[in-house]
Amino acid sequence: MTDASIARDRPLSREAAPLRLLRRFADSRELTLFILVAVLSLVMAAVYPQNFPTLANARAVLLNLAPVGILVCGMMLLMIGGTFDLSVGSTLALAGVWAGVVVGWWGWPAWAGVGVGLLVGGLAGLVNGLIVTRLGINALIATLGTMAIFRGLTYVTAGTGVTPISDPFKAVGQTVILGLQSPFWALVAVAGAMAWLVARTRFFRQYYFIGGNSRAAQLSGIRVERLTLLAFVVIGVLAGLAGVLGAARLNSAVVNAGVGLELKVITATVLGGASLKGGEGTILGGLLGVVFIALVENAMIINAVGVFWQPLVVGLVLLIAVSLDRFKTQGRR
Amino acid sequence: MAPRLLVQGLSKSFPGVRALDDVTIEVARGEIHALLGENGAGKSTLGKIVGGVYRADAGTVALDGRPLGALDEREAGRLGIGIVHQEGSLVGQLSVAENVFAGRQPTRALGRIDRRAMNDRASALIARLGVALDPRARVDGLSSAEAQVVEIAKCLSQDLKVLILDEPTAALTLNESERLFDIVRALARDGVSVIYVSHRLAEIFALCHRVSVLKDGRHVGTRDVSAVTPADLIRMMVGREVLLARQAASGTPGAVALEARGIESLPQVRDMSLTVREGEIVCLAGLIGAGRSEFCEALFGLRRRTGGEARLFGRPFAPAAPIEAIRAGLGMVPEDRKHAGLFLDSSVRDNVTVALRRAAGGGLLHRPAEDAAVARRFIEALGIATPSDAQAVGNLSGGNQQKVLLAKWLALDPRLLIVDEPTRGVDVGARAEIYRLLRDLAARGVALLVVSSDLPEVLTLADRVVVMADGRLAGEMPGEGATEEAILQLATRHTAVATLGEAA
Question: Which residue of A has its CA nearest to B365?
Fold first, then answer.
């Protein structure tokens, strides 16, 4: 930090009113994203009244963002604690394929397939967590390795995939409640639970301390390794859930499910206010990040701008958001 | 003739902080000019503006009468202004020579680095500092003193006119500091002007010609060192008289709180024993590297013990993790405030309550209002200067940060508190307050084990002094009547090199 004391009785550095407003705006990522989402929705609704503000469109958008949203909840927890997981896409595929194998090939009941999927996801997370905490291997390298390993296991297990799985299993991913499909409701449940846990419970707030300063956290009595391990298991289970839902929705376990998903998830998480060094971010922010990216993509499809432009725009949005952060902390050190 | 360096009307603000306020200072050719002030007085900020790290909000810096425009570090270096940071600026994986010429390595055709020329020239620069160092050695294998020599050589590699040293002795032992002083004196004789940022009075009297005192970003005054006394400077720094008199022990110590026998935690701790009683302050003295911090970490469950046994309040005590030690009534204020102690980006409130919430349990939910109440109680009790309990700790001064760290452990009501370097980087005023606080704790029956490398501090605080050398118990003595010489004699007993400069 700077060599500087607190000046209680002196004015802060003066700056122009618009600059101050911008700073306030940049200060809360949730607020920024919320306003962006609202503005984008209103503009789209005004320009494309036939296509955008329809139930069918909302349903499609929400169904598509569900798996990313579920994973963002886990990724946010990891990133608050100062680490991350690149293997989520592979874990998702592995869990989906195992659920497909036990139900579609071995004839197990649908609920057992769900259980196996969650279990496989949890085990994958456990493996990641153990490599990072026990072997002390950096999370980037550890999960880069397991990303390939889990994908490989997926291929080895199911070759080209399992199609079809079974009708009861299909219901897990295709049941419609209040006009929306089950993956969306799973996201609502996961996000609600995670948001509450992370914002309100002392246990999960420990992750902010770990990400803020892991050595100080350890000295404060926080079991850093154990909690980091737990966060990897949590995201593993969530990847398992997303994998099961994806397989059930298509009634088909696809071995290439979730390829490239990890970067999409990390993009949304960072957009939602997480930082690579940890200690920052909220579940709500991460979810708003997911919604915003989904809206941008949806807008481009309706605009008929073309799928090719999507990554370009998402990348730009990410960089602009992070630049806002730089602006926020500018001059502090 | 224009002065070598003229700083005029310099002001600089950070959000929420006025770091420098209209400061004017003049440094002559070949002068060693001390910048003195409490933590947060703005001395490092001034150094960093001159060195091109920060940009001033107002005011000018002139070198040899020529006003300098907006500077960056590279430009400042080219003009002959070198800065040795508190934090260091070396790349551990690279060689000494590459660090000396960072980014400006001598090259041959096509930009290939001319290693031989680079190593030869680095050798010559280091030799000029009177030190022998292999220019091909990797920097991460060097001691902090050697690394500092490399930093200075890096400044010397350009035509050096002004050298800024920011708390250069913080990581050095006594004789290393002496050697550094010789280097600085020699540079000054060659005409280099030195700005010496420090809050250690003894060094200023040993080394500097003139001293400028800063307080809260303002320039209090500049004096010839030969014309002032330490008491004068302290008065200028804090604006009041500060008593660092020895605090008398408060009655006889109570029952044995901690009894450690033959603790071993290889490689640093080999065979260490001590006892601490309730209501007693035991100071653990020794040279840097004697294994004192490691011993404390082994007690606290942070470092694996390879041998020995400890009893806490009569019961066997071998915590596998800090939380077990905390639940048993132990607290530990670590030595490295910024890296091991505080969550700098978190609020005062969260910093004060983190360990409490972890150890005391008592509730599933995070209740900010409850935490704020606890924090405010300690803000008041300890006199922590902060605008609110929601302020980020990183924005507080060193002394106040240290108080936050103490508050975190006091909130847990520990029965035995280990404090590693209680006043490192803390200014004189806050130091006296922290001593009083520790003494009050002892008076309430808390057992205190204080690790300190600052001998005057040991003499001020200790009821008993335990000295450690080379991972072993070297001896102990009552605090009353202990002398720096006696402690140093024990501290150096086991070491091969028993040459020590005078005590700072």
Answer: A201
